[in-house]
Write a structure and sequence with these properties.
The complex is a heterodimer.
Chain A lengths: L1 E5 L5 H25 L4 H9 L1 H4 L1 H30 L7 H19 L7 H27 L3 H21 L35 H19 L1 H11 L1 H6 L4 H24 L14 H11 L4 H25 L4 H22 E5 L6
Antiparallel strand pairs in A: 1-2
Chain B lengths: L3 E12 L2 E12 L3 E5 L6 H8 L7 E6 L2 E3 L4 H6 L2 E4 L11 H7 L7 H14 L15 H13 L5 E5 L7 H16 L3 E6 L2 H7 L2 E6 L2 E6 L6 H9 L16 E10 L9 E9 L3 E5 L6 H9 L9 E3 L2 E2 L5 H6 L2 E4 L14 H9 L6 E2 L2 E2 L1 H14 L16 H14 L4 E5 L7 H16 L3 E5 L3 H7 L2 E6 L2 E2 L3 E2 L5 H7 L15
Parallel strand pairs in B: 3-8, 3-9, 6-7, 7-8, 13-20, 13-21, 16-19, 19-20
Antiparallel strand pairs in B: 1-2, 1-4, 4-5, 9-10, 11-12, 11-14, 14-15, 17-18, 21-22, 21-23
Helix pairs in contact in B: 3-4, 3-5, 11-12, 11-13, 12-13, 13-14
The chains are: A mainly alpha, B alpha/beta.
Chain lengths: 361, 508
């Protein structure tokens, strides 16, 4: 019979190895799933994980896409990871992402069609502020009334989606095209367009922002008292209070940072790759970023790798839909399996399996 | 000579890196009061865990009334008449006494019958207990009664008690001893684990002494002096701490009629606390656990904010300040719980050095951490306080209790404070480490700091304090000079036997 035994210390080896193992297991389980769908599993796996980068036919299109898809994931996940380290669970990044987009687009549409170098920076600030504001709702409810931030932030995603739809159909609708939902295309408004910075690379301001956020988060978590206090509060809340950490302030800081970064991601998306405020603007980056944060071990550098991988599955999924008529949901199943396997495997970081003989204990 | 009830022969148990018990043999007679003496880490716990079926010995055997005895789990030991009262109670605050007792039994009878039996057994042995009361409302002494009664209901032949008096007032200890003597007279053997020598000399008729996992002696404790026993236990001569005589200085810390609600639903609120602490003074605060010690420490350290003017540090109101604000003004604290409160278990000693020292030691500039300086500070503490560890990179939880305590107290002392507040400085710490810590506190007082020690160890308080007060249900007694106080006086200051009335009149 099998027994679980708690390890004296969490295993360093499994901490690093588990994400890789989870990816491998996801590929295997995915292959089984594709086989059951009647597709050639090897072709499907290759199409999702390798062709977007290495194929000559798709590469020129999908390589830039990699950064476009990964940047918002990384930007959001870096913020979430800081909170997760402190045991503050912002599950509603998707909502903050939407609000950031709406605030950013709102600034752009307000100035339209005026030119001006200051418009885009203003949009950046507005986007961050929108996400911050939306995250302050669970933060203040938690610090004032001790509500659960997981539930409140999650439910606010659905509120944000309703607001998004209302904006796309009402206030922000493009007045020049009658009858269609959706705002003006910001890509056609130079002062507000988050354009590609280098041709055919996919690098836009969001990628730059993600890079800066990763560096900032890394320095904060390893060199700064704030990062130390975040870790302390997550590991030993009483010791954190002894060290002078005010729990309420930490909730505000962590939710604020992750909300602002998610808002930024939304703003860069709506002014660039997304282009306009549409009902179907939000595609789940805020939720996928949770997987990215965990797969990256809540470490800013790990999150870069995990973000690139999950970005890859988005593009690969699109290719799979195009080339093999895979169902669109297949890719969500894929991402879900990744988190599932990772969490399951992480069990062995803290426990070991022991085979024992004899009667039950 | 009585018939041996339990015989241990060559019991050996090794864990990776340490031999917890090495070839331990002794007998326990029926109805005998047998003491198991030893320092922390001497192997007492492992030994009784083997008897209670929690740990399987690597080598050696036990016989119970002549029959081979090798319990695979505690339930098997209980069926054979072995019961144990643990040092840390396994009770649920939110359940009543009868429910808690039922949870620890193999086949509990219906609750109404059980309640009656609890009443009967507890009256019979002089441990009155109301089965309908919530455990959360009970004092530590009453909680222990719950555990004891739970054992007695199973009619044990051998009762193992692990450090039972560490949570009791002297008066409560007397009640417990009467109960144990009655049990012994009825033929129940008692294996009594302790490091309190006077207690053992008063109670037990045989003592086995463990040191470093080996048995060093079995003797009659009544025929030995406490000092002889201590030296057998420690294996070296002990020197009592020195205290330089010094004149008392100005008041450095003053608390004025402060009442404060606990932040814990089962905690104890502080009621009308007033005291003052002078430069160079060691003020000892006694009290049974759960009488407001935690709250007092939190209030003084700044973790539990208080009305500003009612806590004064060097004449300045500091009640509103948090821990860092108070540290900046010269007040530091070392909480009772080392792992999780004074130190973060999964962080390195370097990180734990930073935890409370970042400001006073200048380990961070504009919030940016100077890891090299923090590391050097951790090394300083390790060297100065003889912390046994491979280095500052080691996780706090990898250290033994005594070593971590030296580290935590050392860290606060190194901050060169004007006032230091310590809760249970030597709880679970071996004698050598305890005397290092006490000496360090006395040295700090000698340099002019005010030292406030909260402790349940009366011997410790009498050894190091200049003045003395006791906490009882959140109230602090008047402060009295420590010189000339007897243990009885202190017991009364601690609230005597409190609500726990004695039901031994008949037998006593």
């Amino acid at each position: 019979m099998i027994r679980l035994e708690k390890r004296k210390e969490p295993s360093k080896f499994w901490r690093i190895a588990n994400p890789f193992l989870a990816v491998a297991l996801t590929m295997v389980a995915g292959a089984v799933m594709f086989a059951m769908l009647g597709k050639d599993p090897l072709v499907a796996i290759r199409l999702i994980f390798f062709d977007p980068i290495f194929s000559e036919t798709f590469g020129s299109y999908s390589r830039p896409q990699l950064l476009i898809k990964s940047a918002p994931l990384i930007l959001i996940a870096v913020g979430l990871a800081i909170g997760f380290k402190a045991n503050i669970w912002n599950i509603g990044a998707e909502g903050q992402y939407i609000m950031g987009a709406l605030f950013g687009a709102g600034v752009a549409l307000a100035f339209f069609p005026a030119p001006g170098w200051y418009i885009f920076p203003l949009m950046v600030l507005a986007g961050a502020f929108g996400g911050f504001l939306w995250a302050m709702i669970p933060a203040i409810l938690k610090t004032r009334f001790n509500t659960n931030e997981i539930l409140v932030s999650l439910l606010l995603v659905y509120v944000a989606e309703k607001i998004l739809a209302a904006m796309a159909l009402g206030l922000m609708r493009n007045p020049d095209i009658a009858g269609f939902p959706g705002s003006r295309d910001l890509r056609r408004y130079d002062a507000a367009h988050n354009a590609e910075l280098f041709a055919n690379t996919g690098v836009h301001w969001g990628v730059v922002a993600a890079l800066i956020a990763v560096i900032f988060a890394y320095v904060m978590m390893t060199r700064h008292m704030l990062g130390f206090h975040v870790k302390l509060a997550g590991q030993a809340p009483r010791a954190a209070r002894f060290a002078g950490v005010a729990p309420a302030r930490l909730v505000i800081v962590c939710l604020g940072i992750s909300g602002a970064l998610a808002g930024l991601a939304g703003m860069f998306e709506v002014s660039g790759p997304g282009g306009q405020v549409r009902i179907e603007f939000a595609t789940g980056y805020g939720f996928t970023a949770i997987i990215v944060a965990f797969l990256g071990r809540l470490n800013p550098l790990g999150i870069v790798l995990a973000g690139l991988l999950l970005g890859l599955t988005y593009i690969g999924g699109e290719l799979g839909q195009m080339m093999l008529q895979l169902p669109g949901a297949a890719i969500q199943v894929f991402q879900g399996m990744l988190l599932f396997f990772l969490l399951a495997l992480d069990f062995q970081t803290n426990y070991r399996l022991r085979l024992t003989r004899g009667a039950r204990a | 000579m009585r018939v041996p009830l339990l015989q241990l022969e060559g019991l050996t148990k090794a864990y990776p890196g340490v031999v917890a018990n090495d070839d331990v043999s002794f007998d326990i007679g029926e109805g005998q009061m047998h003491a198991l003496l030893g320092e922390n880490g001497a192997g007492k716990s492992t030994l009784v865990k083997m008897i209670y079926g929690l740990v399987k010995p690597d080598k050696g055997q036990m016989t119970l009334r002549g029959q081979p005895f090798a319990p695979a789990q505690p339930s098997q030991a209980r069926r054979n008449g072995v019961a144990m009262v643990f040092q840390h109670f396994s009770l649920f605050d939110a359940l009543d006494v009868a429910e808690n007792v039922a949870l620890g039994m193999e086949n509990p009878p219906p609750l109404r019958d059980l309640a009656r039996r609890i009443r009967d057994v507890s009256e019979e042995y002089g441990l009155p207990l109301d089965p309908a009361r919530w455990v959360g409302e009970l004092s530590a002494g009453e909680r222990q009664r719950v555990e004891i009664v739970r054992c007695l209901l199973q009619d044990p032949k051998l009762l193992i008690m692990d450090e039972p008096t560490s949570v009791l007032t002297p008066q409560e200890v007397d009640i417990l001893f009467l109960t144990l003597r009655k049990l012994s007279a009825e033929g129940t053997a008692i294996l009594y684990i302790s490091h309190k020598l006077e207690e053992i000399r008063a109670l037990c008729d045989e003592a086995t002494i463990l040191r470093g996992g080996r048995k060093v002696a079995t003797c009659d404790p009544r025929e030995r002096t406490a000092r002889e026993l201590a030296e057998l236990m420690v294996g070296q001569l002990l020197t009592p701490p020195e205290r330089p005589a010094k004149p008392k200085g100005d008041i450095v810390l003053e608390v004025d009629n402060l009442s404060l609600a606990s932040n814990n639903p089962f905690g104890t609120s502080l009621k009308n606390i007033s005291f003052s602490l002078r430069k160079g003074e060691v003020l000892g605060i006694a009290g049974v656990a759960g009488n407001g010690q935690d709250e007092l420490l939190l209030m003084l350290s700044g973790e539990l904010p208080a009305p500003s003017a009612q806590v004064k540090l060097k004449g300045q109101p500091v009640g509103h300040l948090g821990p860092n604000g108070r540290r900046a003004r010269g007040l530091v604290a070392a909480p009772e719980e080392r792992l999780g409160h004074a130190a973060a278990p999964d962080m390195s000693l370097t990180e734990n050095a930073l935890l409370s020292a970042s400001r006073r030691k200048g380990l961070a500039w504009q919030g940016f951490i100077d890891w090299r300086k923090s590391d050097a500070f951790a090394r300083d503490i390790i060297a100065r306080f003889d912390v046994r560890t491979p280095g500052p990179h080691v996780l706090a939880r990898a250290l033994s209790g005594g070593n971590l305590q030296k580290f935590v107290i050392g860290r606060e002392i190194e901050l060169d404070p004007d006032v230091i507040i310590v809760n249970q400085p030597t709880w679970g710490v071996d004698a050598a480490a305890a005397s290092t810590i006490r000496q360090a506190l006395l040295d700090l007082a000698g340099k002019g700091a005010g030292v406030l020690v909260i402790s349940q160890d009366l011997d410790e308080l009498l050894e190091i304090s200049d003045s003395f007060a006791a906490l009882n249900e959140g109230r602090l007694s008047d402060t009295r000079p420590a010189k000339g106080l007897s243990v009885e006086d202190i017991g009364l200051m601690m609230g005597g036997a409190g609500d726990m009335h004695v039901a031994h009149e008949a037998s006593a």
